[in-house]
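TASK: fixed-backbone design
INPUT:
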């Protein structure tokens, strides 16, 4: 069992906040164990809560489409959320819930050591770009230490407000070149042979 799998088992038993009382399944994450590209969303929704996998509803279908537009698939990246359980009625996560899950996400990042982190939506963005509206900085990467961070609109934004779709698609097209900058040539391995982790 890998460190990520052990962490997923720990998350499955978590009772740190009120979200544990209403969940069906925890949603720790999915993807390549050696992914250099990490996507962090906000919170699981209806479909994720039932399947235990991130981004499997309509927004996940759009995310898959976006990944295909840059020649990638979710099997080559790692996808997770800032909280690991669905908030009631898909409401925004509360500060206490974000804090309860913070160590889980910190440990996932520690184990994966991604070269590039793409934040999807306001709540994951706020970890690295605090007190800035996403409308002002989406698509503008920032390097912190050895990691490159790229804030993007959440895929669901395009489903609810079609005017965001073009911006999301254009921002996504920046990822391949940014990833090349973030990953030294000697470490470049796109993950085709990576161990896949079904953490549910």
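OUTPUT:
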């Amino acid at each position: 069992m890998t460190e990520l799998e052990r962490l997923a088992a720990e998350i499955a038993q978590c009772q740190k906040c009120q979200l544990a009382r209403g969940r069906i399944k925890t949603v720790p994450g999915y993807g390549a164990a050696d992914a250099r590209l990490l996507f962090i969303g906000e919170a699981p929704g209806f479909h994720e809560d039932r399947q235990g996998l991130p981004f499997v509803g309509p927004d996940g279908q759009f995310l898959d489409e976006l990944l295909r537009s840059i020649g990638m698939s979710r099997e080559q990246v790692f996808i997770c959320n800032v909280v690991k359980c669905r908030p009631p009625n898909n409401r925004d996560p509360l500060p206490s819930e974000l804090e309860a899950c913070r160590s889980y996400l910190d440990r996932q990042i520690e184990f994966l050591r991604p070269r590039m982190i793409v934040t999807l939506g306001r709540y994951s963005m706020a970890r690295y770009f605090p007190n800035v509206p996403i409308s002002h900085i989406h698509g503008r990467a920032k390097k912190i230490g050895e990691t490159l961070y790229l804030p993007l609109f959440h895929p669901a934004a395009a489903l609810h407000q079609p005017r965001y779709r073009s911006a999301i698609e254009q921002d996504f097209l920046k990822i391949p070149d940014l990833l090349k900058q973030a990953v030294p040539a000697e470490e470049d391995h796109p993950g085709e042979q990576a161990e896949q982790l079904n953490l549910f």
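COMMENT: The CA atoms of residues 119 and 127 lie 9 Å apart.
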